[in-house]
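Q: What structure does this chain adopt?
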Amino acid sequence: MMTSPGGCCGSQPDPFADLPAELRPQSTAGSNNPLRLVTCPGCGMRYSTNRSHDICPDCERKGIKTPERQGENDTMLTIKVLGSGCANCKRLEQHARMALEQVGVEAEIEYVTDVAKFVDYGLMSTPGLVINEKLVSSGKVLAPNSIVSLIQEAQAG
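A:
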């Protein structure tokens, strides 16, 4: 039996299968379908969405802004702790989480152990702290209050 590369019995694969459930578009049966077909202004991908803006989740995560979203006050920060997994690196991650709680902003924290990524950021000694893709600290465990200051600077511009 032959099947097409698109899926079983010639059906199309779900283009949203790799997305977390909360980012998948919700559809309803009937004529009141809330999905609309859009083209992401950031990358040009065509997709269906029920969200109020057309930018795809990937471009949104990368911080790409569209002309209609330029004025929005995005508080979403990306924070990366670069380290080998040692106690100091893990402590820096904990301090970053404490700082976020103090400031009360929404942020995505990622723990990066890939040495090749360290080089991309110019990190010479671990642990390293990256806020919005900018290396802001290396070789020391910052106190939560110091990280709060760095977060506020990143938000200011």
